[in-house]
Amino acid sequence: MEVIIRENADSCAEIAAKIVAKYLREKKSPVLGLATGSTPEKMYRKLISMNEKGEISFSHCTTFNLDEYVGLPPDHSQSYHRYMKQNLFDHIDIGMGSTHIPDGNAPDLRLECLNYEKAIKNEGGIDLQILGIGSNGHIGFNEPIGSLSSRTWIKILTQNTIKDNARFFDDDSQVPRHVITMGIGTILEAEHCLILACGKQKSMAVQAMIEGPITSQCPSSALQFHKRTTAVLDEDAACLLKLKSHYKWVEENHLDWQQYD
Ligand code: PGA
Predict the structure, then answer these.
(1) Torsion sign (Cα): 220, 222, 224, 228
(2) Residue closest to 102 by CA, chosen among 37, 35, 149, 42
(3) Nearest CA owner, ligand 1 atom 7
(4) Residues 131-157: pLDDT tens digits?
(5) 86: CA distance to ligand 1 center in Å?
(6) Domains of the chain: which residue ranges?
(7) CB 3.0-4.6 Å disulfide test: which of 25, 72, 179, 202 passes with 141?
(8) For ligand 1, what atom is nearest to the CA of residue 40?
(9) Ligand 1 site: residues with CB under 6 angstroms?
(10) Ligand 1 atom closest to Cα of 135?
């Protein structure tokens, strides 16, 4: 795994936006996998600003979001449909027909999951998958002990995640129990995964993901199997890494074409 450590959340967002921009500039029809949550918000703001300045365009790009709550109306303040419009889609030159988010209100949720997988395949797969990490090591909404080769499916959130996400709702009881999420197997098929983590509250999960054993107890540890994952971390999220100086050494010795800055 490639590990990039930056001073703070702002400098992480800066380099993450540069990585996304590279795909938008270099690929004829880039397919981006998108994430929600508080971590990627700053990166989205940087991408919007680059789009406004004409430095990048999303007009040729297709997107697939990782996950969505089951049962929240799309215009609910906490739905990921609403989040994506507010934090990205309403401010960039993307055609809404090129964006995909699982439909948590589909009459047949199982069919929705199967069709979501097909839609990703029809676009030729995901070029760059953006990910956040939960404090329990989840990616997407793939909670501990789920299969490490799962596909897009309906999952039940852990009480830990419900507690973490309650800050966005009035209280715990308002957080939906069910979600649709791309599976770990789906995520591992992306050409490149870009996982972002900031803050001390993520440091244990980050250490387990990068340096721990591959185990379904920490779903993000499956990324150790992935052919090309870049982890962008701030100093706080990286504080428990045992090989931190080695990761910095590797980055300092990157060849020109391996650098993002
Ligand atoms: P956060 O969520 O960015 O809001 O911390 C990340 C996640 O749970 O995947």
Answers:
(1) negative
(2) 35
(3) 134
(4) 999 999 999 999 999 999 999 999 999
(5) 17
(6) 2-239
(7) 179
(8) 3
(9) 37-39, 132-134
(10) 8
* pLDDT at site 143: 95
Quick check: 164 pLDDT over 90? no
C-alpha 67 to ligand 1 mean position (Å): 12
Active-site option among 68, 112, 127, 143: 143
pTM of the predicted structure, to 2 decimals: 0.96
User: 138 alpha carbon to ligand 1 midpoint, in Å?
Assistant: 9
At 171 the pLDDT is 87
2-239 fold? Rossmann fold (3.40.50)
User: Which residue puts its alpha carbon closest to atom 2 of ligand 1?
Assistant: 37
